[in-house]
Amino acid sequence: MTYPYHRPRRLRRLENLRRLVRETELAVKDLLWPLFVVEGERVRQPVESMPGVFRYSVDQLLGELEEAVELGLPGVLLFGVTDRKDPQGSEAWNREGVVPRAIRAIKARFPELVVAADVCLCPYTDHGHCGVVEEGRVLNDPTLPLLARAAVTYAEAGADLVAPSDMMDGRVRAIREALDAAGFQEVGIMAYSAKYASAFYGPFREAAESAPRFGDRRSYQMDPANAAEALWEVELDLEEGADIVMVKPALAYLDVIRQVKDAFGRPVAAYNVSGEYAMIKAAAKLGWLDEKAVVLEVLTAIKRAGADIIITYFAKEAARWLRR
Predict the structure, then answer these.
(1) Which numeric CATH code is attached to 24-323?
(2) DSSP state for residue 86 in the 8-state scheme
(3) Is residue 274 marked as binding?
(4) Given 22, 62, 90, 139, which is the most exposed site by the fewest CB atoms within 10 A?
(5) Contact 211, 205 (CB under 8 A)
(6) What is the average pLDDT score of the chain?
(7) pTM for this entry
(8) 277 a known binding residue?
């Protein structure tokens, strides 16, 4: 036998050979599409810092979902955007609020589509924090019943999953108990378990109009330097009843996604967040990157790291590319 003895390139020679030995296969079924819903009718507002992303009124949202369903996207994650804000964030549990109305409309038109609803107070509080604030402090325990109330409201509207993103301690248990007591034992919880205090969220805060009016969220979101703490957070959420756990953001935390998957073997979601989206869009606009190639590479990397579900603003575009 001549040197070199081992030639990995043999299996790279043809596209069909490469396909036969491919270890990770990204599919449309892996993608969850995050959407921003606003009040009014015939509203389609572009988000300046996220080219290609819009805030939709419910009627416009339904039109957008026609193609998403045809492409085979399995579900959406809804975020409400409203001017109705107060210190408690009471619009979060308003049965006639924009998110419950969107859920009812989607389930009536597309009953097979999985609808997840983000559960947090920050889009609805006048201070922009994710919990009850007293003397400049975000209070944990008084926030829990409010989050639970919002989750039940979304379940009543027809949500299949509720997704608490607030990072209050004990909120998964509070929500699980409230859902069960209200007769919604089959509604699942997709918990933002390892949500980091990341610099990649800037464009989202513009889109959701949820930036804090004072301070920051480092007292309740995780330190980006920590990985072992993420495993602790995930373990606690699973003990409290989470059905799916999430790591957010995705790209700077691929190691955490892998550790969570290896440690627990439970369904893992990863959020390819607004800043990650905006960077690729900006570089592609300048001609510095091939957008399609980079997006599919990034999403494949997130799946390879261990994510079962990838929440991404690229969902619809990626679905088109994958279907072709």
Answers:
(1) 3.20.20.70
(2) B
(3) yes
(4) 22
(5) yes
(6) 95
(7) 0.95
(8) no
Query: What tokens appear for 188 in the block?
Result: 């699942």
Round to whole Å and give the CA distance between 4 and 248: 43
Catalytic residue numbers read: 195, 248
CA distance 1 to 150: 68
The answer to whether the bond into 249 is cis (omega within 30° of 0) is: yes
Each domain of the chain, given as residue ranges in start order, spans 24-323
The whole-angstrom separation of Cα 157 and Cα 151 is 10
Q: Which residue has the tokens 């509207």?
A: 157
* pLDDT single digits (tens) 266-301: 999 999 999 999 999 999 999 999 999 999 999 999
- What are the residues facing 134 on neighbouring strands? 137
CA distances from 206 to 41, 92, 201, 211, 283 (A): 21, 18, 9, 7, 20
Tokens for 67, please give them. 């193609």
Can you tell me whether residue 270 is helix, strand or coil? strand
Determine if residue 122 is labeled as part of a ligand binding site: yes
Helix (H, G, I), strand (E, B) or coil at 136: coil
Q: What is the mean pLDDT of residues 120-141?
A: 91
Instruction: Compute CA distances 80 → 104, 116, 247, whole Å.
Output: 14, 12, 21
Q: How many residues does the chain have?
A: 324
| pLDDT tens per residue across span 160-189 | 999 999 999 999 999 999 999 999 999 999
Element (H, E) at 70: helix 58-71
198 labelled as ligand-binding? no
Please calculate the CA angle 59-99-240 and round it to the nearest 5 degrees. Answer: 150
Q: Residue 109, annotated ligand binder?
A: no
Please tell me the predicted confidence (pLDDT) of residue 1: 63
Q: Give me 303's structure tokens.
A: 């799946």
